[in-house]
Design goal:
There is one protein chain. By secondary structure, the chain is of the alpha/beta class. The protein has 17 helices and 21 strands. A five-stranded parallel sheet has the order 13-12-14-15-16, with helices on both faces. It is globular.
């Protein structure tokens, strides 16, 4: 039996200055049979480790080398001029370099001051050093005069939508082109089912994606919490497409769901923001949302970017499958092209929302209501309020109020109702009347010029109207602003709410 014992060959007195050696002892023979270097020692140790890790190992007395390894936790290595940077997120060191190598699961990076970067596996097979150049600047990571990153990112959304659709929709023909669809046309034509896997805000975006794909592509869609999907022994077939949605591309549960889907033989498509992230590398194909770094913990521009990509995905696949009319295809494509200007318009409600927020800092609970495409928007609005103001809030389909939640309604329970024009508008207006009759305080998000709901609501926020399937993008903005201003007036730490992390990279 062989064991490994670290012994400093220079003696105890020199332990701080001299590197140690790990000797391989054969206990059966009672003798030293050799020694291992730092890399081999780490490889031997990690073969016995179970679970997720991202580690850096420095040998005492050896200042020239770092051994780094990862399994199910993010790791990026920045490459500068004669220097290296080790981080979980490239954004943290973008000030110093734009060249990065992303370490894959089960890989070890040997970072030596005097040698080129080396990547090896636990079994000592040499891996490829794939250097990616990130198009990101330090100015993107600064507040730019805004009091919080969240507010900056809310106001960035007209620009980030431009970046999201750039080169993907022709302004002349309205044709939508996504390389992930073009290169995998056969997969989308043969798909019998699409399954979204996501967590948090990305899960809400996926619920909107479900509506888009079923309506436009006529493919059955399921939306799964990645944390449940991975443990449920799900039925996955080779003609299924699994779409993984994650802002960071490092969400541990979503990444595990991707691995499960791939092992089952499904085609896996990723929608994420961070170039070179773990999910981007683990999926068969995908589309970046290109909204730039999102620093605020409460996701804003990533949500609208995800829904924008899902709308383009639905149009591209619907065109390939012949399930969308030319008129509707052109209507939604044109609306996407004009979406940045629409977002500029809706941001003009910010002063009104700021004033409105002052009234509701007293509340301990909120209810958010929506129907159709805007039911997920209600869920997202409630989540934003919970995350940063610590006010309990729940989102419901408006028609479900009468099946229980309406018992909660009183003068102390504000209700945010999304009542923009769609085929459920009259039903939603009726639900608002039910709440009003029970003394509830109603904040209604309505189309400009809507007098019907205005008469029922205590407060209204008017928004411009575009194609029905894109209204969640527009409506989400005032809901983001409402959560932001309530949190600010309550003195909360908006960018770093308690108990939350930007990327959930552990179970």
């Amino acid at each position: 039996m062989a064991v490994y014992i670290p012994i400093n060959i220079a003696g105890v007195q020199d332990a701080q200055e001299k590197p140690s050696k790990t000797y391989r002892l054969d206990l059966d023979a009672g003798r030293i049979v050799g020694f291992v270097d730092n890399l081999e020692a780490v490889q031997q140790a990690l073969r016995q480790v179970v679970g997720a890790y991202a580690i850096a190992v420095i040998e005492k007395g050896n200042r020239d080398e770092i051994i780094a390894a990862r399994q199910s936790s993010p790791m990026a290595i920045g490459i500068g001029e004669g220097e290296f940077f080790l981080s979980s997120d490239a954004a943290s060191v973008i000030e110093y370099t734009q060249d990065f190598v992303y370490v894959n699961d089960g890989e070890i990076a040997v970072i030596n001051r005097h040698k080129p970067l080396k990547i090896v596996t636990l079994d000592n097979h040499e891996g490829r050093v794939d250097i990616k150049k990130l198009q990101m600047s330090i100015s993107q990571l600064e507040k730019g005069g805004y009091p919080h990153f969240m507010l900056k990112e809310i106001y960035e959304q007209p620009k980030t939508i431009v970046d999201c659709i750039r080169g993907r929709i022709s302004p002349d023909t309205y044709e939508v082109k996504l390389s992930g669809v073009i290169d995998n046309r056969g997969k989308f034509l043969a798909a019998r089912r699409i399954v979204f896997v996501a967590c948090g805000t990305s899960w809400h975006a996926a619920l909107i994606g479900e509506h888009l794909i079923e309506n436009i592509c006529r493919i059955p869609v399921e939306v799964e919490y990645a944390s449940e999907f991975r443990y449920r022994n799900p039925i996955i077939n080779a003609d299924d497409i699994v779409i993984a949605v994650s802002q960071s591309g490092e969400t541990a549960d979503t990444l595990a769901a991707v691995e499960l889907a791939r092992k089952a033989g499904a085609f896996v498509f990723g929608i994420c923001n961070v170039v070179g992230s773990s999910i981007a590398r683990a999926t068969d194909s995908g589309a970046y949302i290109h909204v730039g770094p999102e620093i605020g913990v409460a996701s804003t521009k990533a949500f609208t970017g995800q829904v924008t990509v899902m709308a383009m995905l639905a149009l591209a696949v619907g065109r390939e499958r012949g399930t969308v009319t030319e008129a509707y295809y052109n209507e939604v494509s044109a609306a996407l092209l004009h979406l940045p200007e629409t977002m500029e318009e809706v941001l003009k409600v910010a002063p009104q929302v700021a004033d409105l927020a002052k009234i509701f800092t007293y509340a301990h609970n909120f209810i958010y209501l929506g129907r159709g495409y805007n039911y997920p928007t209600a869920l997202e609005g409630a989540l934003k309020l919970k995350e940063i103001s610590y006010i309990h809030a729940e989102g419901y389909p408006a028609a479900e109020m009468k099946h229980g939640p309406i018992a909660l309604i009183d003068a102390e329970m504000p209700t945010v109702a999304i009542a923009t024009p769609d085929h459920t508008y009259e039903k939603t207006a009726s639900n608002i009347e039910e709440i009003k009759a029970r003394g509830g305080k109603i904040i209604a998000v309505i189309a400009r010029g809507d007098e019907q709901v205005r008469r029922s609501a205590d407060f209204v926020i008017e928004v411009p109207v575009i194609a029905e399937c894109l209204m969640p993008i527009v409506v989400s903005v005032p809901l983001q602003l409402l959560a932001y201003y309530i949190a600010v007036y309550k003195g909360r730490n908006v960018d770093q709410p308690r108990n939350l992390a930007k990327s959930v990279t552990v179970e």
